[in-house]
Write a structure and sequence with these properties.
The chain is an alpha/beta fold. The chain is 29% helix and 24% strand. The chain has two domains: 165 residues, Alanine racemase (TIM Barrel); 126 residues, Lyase, Ornithine Decarboxylase, Chain A, domain 1 (Beta Barrel), CATH 2.40.37.10.
């Protein structure tokens, strides 16, 4: 997963402290694979996964659209070269003044999941297109996204009926089957639920035209995951099964699947110790932890591949923890990692497939540790810049 370009950058530049290095050529490849697999589907990159300006500019130049969660992300997408018609305000929880600002910037597509949100949009973005997010169970996902966002299908009918009544364009539905979704059939039930809402609203002369299939497309960590084309074929089969030959327009919102395997975090071993003479597991403390960008190790949900300079020798189980004075800053303890017995303090490790949801999760100097620097390599200029 670590490209030669990333290895060369780390060897030549020797950045001090932990850092994330992202290879733009991998991002380009991932976009092209998605575009080939979903030729008739709009691709809306989830900006929250990694908003580095160079990534956004590359994707904008390739014709990608953007799923945004805030006015700040909308402004980032516009600055990268996207036009307002290529931006979706996909957060269902928005301040009224932020809706007004997005409307003033020209954004015309908004997510909702309740009548109260519809009423805010009707006041601040009259005539806008809205889609309602419905609940899914997230089963099969390594990072589920159920409960907080979305509503029951029965309520979705009421929400979009309200939007229509208030003069908005009730254009469609959305769902999210959970991040790092490895079950190809996860979309089938959600598409079936969406079809019921399409039918119910059609009976009220409100004809939906768009289905947002969400994200969930994985990156490879330790386990193999299905290929992008396998997801496309499974989703197309689900769409045909439930909608027949009257298919609505579709969009997808890849985040992790777009940038996850494009990035690598370089980290240093700060300490190796044991808690008792009889303790079988060593504790390996790194100079990065949950508060420095590895928040997705919570409950050991995401298990990143780790490379060491001493791979190939005898290994033993290790608990892996971060450097902060917070007892929650332990990444892997329930299922320890097998690391080389020869590992030493000062060794530099590579945590692979960390291009998504790391730099954006990094806290602002918790315990005085600086936020995770990001360096970009690849692309036409092949320049490395600290973001």
């Amino acid at each position: 997963m670590t490209t030669q370009r990333i290895i060369d950058f780390l060897a030549n530049e020797r950045p001090d402290g932990p850092c994330l290095v992202v290879d733009l050529d991998v991002v380009r490849r991932n976009f092209q694979h998605l575009a080939e697999a979903f030729p008739a589907t709009g691709i809306y990159y989830a900006v929250k996964a990694n908003p580095a300006p160079e990534i956004l500019a590359l994707l904008a130049s390739l014709g990608c659209c953007f799923d945004t969660a805030s006015v700040a992300e909308i402004e980032m997408a516009l600055a990268a070269g996207a036009t307002p018609d290529r931006i979706s305000y996909g957060n269902t929880i928005k301040k009224e003044r932020d809706i007004a600002r997005a409307h003033a910037l020209g954004v015309g597509l908004y997510a909702v999941d309740c009548v109260e949100e519809v009423e805010k949009i009707a006041r601040q973005a009259p005539g806008a297109r809205v889609f309602c997010r419905i609940l899914t169970d997230g089963e099969g996902a390594e990072w589920p996204l159920s409960r907080k966002f979305g509503c029951h299908t029965d309520m979705a009918v009421d929400v979009l009926e309200c939007a229509h009544r208030l003069g908005l364009n009730a254009c469609g539905l959305s769902f999210h089957v959970g991040s790092q979704q490895c079950d190809l059939m996860a979309w089938d039930k959600a598409v079936g639920d969406a079809k019921k809402v399409f039918v119910a609203l059609g009976d009220k002369n409100i004809n939906l035209s768009m289905l947002n299939l969400g994200g969930g497309f994985p990156t490879r960590y330790i386990k193999d995951v299905p290929a992008t084309m396998a997801y496309a074929e499974a989703i197309q089969a689900a769409m045909t099964r439930h909608f027949g030959n009257r298919l609505p327009a579709t969009i997808i919102e890849p985040g992790r699947g777009m940038v996850g395997d494009a990035g690598v975090i370089k980290t240093e071993v700060v300490l190796i110790s044991r808690k008792s003479a009889e303790d079988e597991a060593r504790w390996v403390y790194l100079d990065i932890g949950k508060f420095g960008g590895l928040a997705e190790t919570m409950d050991e949900a995401i298990r990143y591949p780790i490379r060491t300079p001493r791979d190939g020798g005898e290994t033993a189980p290790c608990v892996i923890a971060g450097p902060t004075c917070d007892s929650a800053d332990v990444m892997y303890e329930k299922t320890p990692y097998a690391l080389p017995l020869s590992l030493q303090i000062g060794d530099e490790l590579l945590i692979e497939a960390t291009g998504a949801y790391t730099s954006t999760y990094a806290s602002v100097a918790f315990n005085g540790f600086v936020p995770l620097p990001t360096y970009i390599v690849g692309g036409e200029s092949d320049a490395a810049l600290a973001a």
